[in-house]
Structures are given as structure tokens and as C-alpha cells.
């Protein structure tokens, strides 16, 4: 929708962003910080280290966008990944409620997998492609942070996808 309403965003993810986008990314940094601290305080490290690592990468990357007022468009694209989080969290709630053998869980599993492919895998692939194609327009330090971020997030998401497939479809 943002790309439709602000077509210049598809041309420039570095310096262009629609009204409110900077605030959205800043609030997202706050959310990831709060969730990070909550996990540190309330979960065992061996249970949450992957999410803590994920949150660290997002906080650094989004923090750069917020502080520099650049790459906010790129961060907006990255936030598409969080659409799938709705179904990942619902899956967790259904698991905790012991509702694994219900139609609701099964339906959520299918939607979760579909949104995972569209909003995580495809979005991360697009972001990686964009970063590679625009490497000459991105300062080396920022390019390095983006490349490392994508190099961390992509395998993490592929592994999680495999775990979801194995757990929900190949028992």
C-alpha cells in the first residue's frame, strides 16, 4: 500500500520515506528493545538466544535508519516480515493452550506457512537483491551492516521455516 501511495519509495529506499514512516520504525525499535529486555528477564537463555540475536540485528539496523533518517524505506520493507509474526504468535498461543489437534491450529499452520513464504522468505530475498543491486549507492559501512544483517536473517528464517514444516506438516 505504501508503494502504491508513495511510488517514489520504490525508486529510493535510502532517502525517501512517507510521512509517519520514521516514527513507525522508531516505535519498532522500541518494541524490539522492550521484547529483548523481557526475554532476558523472563526466559532461559538457551530458549531465547535465537530471538535475542534476531532482535539485536533488527535493533542495530533499524536504529541506524532512525538515527540517520536514511534507509527508513528499507526498514519499512523489512517490517513486512512482521506480518507473519501474527501467525507465528498465534501458533505459539495455540500450542500453549494445547490446541494442536484443532481445526484452528491446522488453519493457522497453513496461513502461517503461506505468509512465511510471502512476507519472510520473499521479502528477505527482495531486500538482499536490492542491497546487492544498489551497493554502489550505499556507503561501505552501511552496506556491511546490511549485508551482515541479511546474511544472519536469511539462514535464521530458512531454518525456522524448516522447523515449522517439520513440526506442523511432517510429524
TrEMBL record:
Keywords: Membrane, Transmembrane, Transmembrane helix
Keyword Electron transport: no
InterPro entries noted in UniProt: TLC-dom, TLCD
One GO biological process term: plasma membrane organization
Predominant localisation class: membrane
Stretches that traverse the bilayer: 74-90, 110-132, 144-165
TLC domain ranges (all copies): 1-171
Membrane association type: Multi-pass membrane protein
Record bears the keyword Transmembrane helix: yes
GO cellular component, one term: plasma membrane
Compartments, record wording: Membrane
PROSITE patterns per the UniProt record, alphabetical: TLC (PS50922)
Name of this chain's protein: TLCD2 protein
Organism: Calyptomena viridis (Lesser green broadbill)
Gene name per UniProt: Tlcd2
Amino acid at each position: 500500500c505504501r508503494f502504491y501511495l508513495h511510488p517514489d519509495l520504490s525508486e529510493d529506499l535510502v532517502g525517501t520515506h512517507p510521512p509517519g514512516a520514521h516514527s513507525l520504525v522508531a516505535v519498532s525499535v522500541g518494541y524490539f528493545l522492550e521484547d529483548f529486555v523481557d526475554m532476558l528477564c523472563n526466559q532461559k537463555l538457551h530458549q531465547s538466544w535465537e530471538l535475542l540475536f534476531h532482535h539485536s540485528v533488527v535493533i542495530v539496523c533499524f536504529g541506524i535508519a532512525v538515527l540517520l533518517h536514511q534507509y527508513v524505506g528499507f526498514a519499512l520493507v523489512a517490517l513486512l516480515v512482521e506480518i507473519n509474526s501474527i501467525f507465528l504468535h498465534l501458533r505459539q498461543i495455540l500450542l500453549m493452550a494445547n490446541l494442536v489437534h484443532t481445526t484452528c491450529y491446522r488453519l493457522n499452520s497453513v496461513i502461517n506457512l503461506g505468509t512465511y513464504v510471502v512476507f519472510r522468505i520473499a521479502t528477505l530475498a527482495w531486500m538482499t537483491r536490492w542491497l546487492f543491486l544498489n551497493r554502489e549507492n550505499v556507503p561501505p559501512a552501511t552496506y556491511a551492516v546490511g549485508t551482515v544483517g541479511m546474511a544472519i536473517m536469511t539462514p535464521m528464517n530458512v531454518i525456522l521455516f524448516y522447523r515449522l514444516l517439520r513440526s506442523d506438516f511432517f510429524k
